[in-house]
Amino acid sequence: MQQNAYIAGVGMTPFGKHQDRTLKSLTQEAVAAALQDAGVDAKQLEAAYFGTAATAVTVGQVMVPGQVALREMGIGRIPVVNVENACASAATAFQQACTMVTAGLYDVVLAIGSEKLYCEDREKTFSVFTGAVDFESFDEVSDALYERIEAAGIHTEAAGGNRSLFMDIYAAWALGHMREYGTTREDFAAVSAKTSFHGSLNPKAQFRDALSVEQVLGAREISYPLTLAMCSPIGDGSAAAVIVSEKIAKRLGMNDMVRVRTSVLRSGWDIGENEPGVTETVAKEAYEEAGIGPEDIDVIELHDASSPAELMYYESLGLCPKGEGARFINEGHSRLGGKTPVNPSGGLLRKGHPVGATGLAQIAELTDQLRGRADKRQVSGARVALAENGGGYIGSDAAAMVISVLEK
C-alpha cells in the first residue's frame, strides 16, 4: 500500500541470549529508546501494534502480550493490537501502524516487535517453527520437503531437537538453486562471510566475529548444504518505531524523519511452474507504488534466515537477473562500499533473529542508515532503503511477506 507516514524515532535492544531478561523488560527498553529518539511522550501515543510470534509457546504469555508489556510504562487505555504473523510479525505490525496513520485514523502510533526464543527446552523453541506451516497437513508438507531433498541425492534425518524445520526448507531451496544454476556451497559461504564482516561493525549484533569463507564451510553441518554459519541463530530482543503523520510532524517541528513511501503486505500461495513467488510479486508492487526500481535502492535489509535465502533474494528483488546471485555476491555488490549493500546490520545471520522482533530491527537499522548515524557500517549517501521480511511456509512459498520502501 502506498503510504503517507513518517518514522519519527526508533529503538532496539541488543539481540542475543537474554535469559536473565523478561519480555516486558526487553520491550520497555526498545520502546523507551524509540520514544526518546522521536521526542514523543508516551501520553501522546494513540495506538500500538505489538508483534510477537513465539511468546505463547516459550513464555506462556497468550492473547495479551502487548498490553502486559506496555502497561508498566504507563501505556494503556489506547488500542493495543497484538500481531502474530510468523517471522513477519514485527514487519506486519509496522505495516499496519503506517496504514492507520496514512488512513488518517491516528497521528502518533507505536509499532513494536518483541521475542523471547531462548528456552531451557530446545524442542519447545523449535516447535515454534514446526507450527509455522499448515499443521493439519504437516506430514504431507514434511514428506514433500524431504522428497525434494532426497531427489538431490541427499539423505537427512527429519528436523527436531537440533535444528528447525525451516533450515531444511532453506536447504531444499538451496539444492534447487545449485541444480538449476550451478551455484556452489562456496557462493553461499561468501554471503555468510560478507554478512559476518557487517555484523562485526554492529554493537547490537548477536555475533560480532568476522568469518572467512573457509571458516563458514568448516563449521558444523546443519542440513546439507548448510553449515551452522549459514543459518540464523535463535535469540531474544525487541525493536520499536514511532510512526507519525505529516500533520503532527509539522506541528511538533520534527525535522529528522524518514518517510515511508510504501509498505506492502501479502500472503504466499502455491506457486505454479514459472510463476513468480510472493517476494517477486510484493517487490514489483512496492517498486511501482514507490515509483522506483531496484537500481534506485541504496541499502537493503532482507530476511537472510539462511545465506542461500539472501543470495536468492538478490534475484527476487531484481538486484540481478535470475541465476546470477552468485555473481552478485562474488563481485562484491552487496558488501559495504558495493553497488547495493545488503544487511549492513549483520542481518539475521549475525545481528540475530528473535523472530517477532526482526522486521522492526530492519526498520531501525535502515532509519539509522538514512539518518547517517550507522557509524562504521554507514552506507555513504544512503537516501532510499528497502526492508524485506518474510515468515511461515504455505504451499511452496513464504506464508507472509512485507516489503517496505523508506526515503530520507
Strand order of the largest sheet: 3-2-4-7-1-8-11-10-9
Report strand %.
Answer: 15-25%
Mean pLDDT: 95
Low-confidence stretches: none
Overall number of strands: 11
Biggest sheet details: 9 strands, mixed
Number of helices: 15
Judged by helices, strands and strand pairing, the structural class is alpha/beta
Query: Roughly how many Å is the radius of gyration?
Result: 20 Å
**Into which percent range does the helicity of residues fall?**
25-40%
Instruction: Give the CA-based shape.
Output: globular
Descriptive report:
- This protein is α/β, with parallel strands linked by helices and 408 residues long.
- It contains 15 helices and 11 strands.
- The chain has a 9-stranded mixed beta sheet, sandwiched between helices.
- Strand 5 and strand 6 form a beta hairpin.
- Helix 8 packs across helix 12.
- The longest helix has 17 residues.
- The chain is globular, with a radius of gyration of 20 Å.
- 57% of the residues are buried.
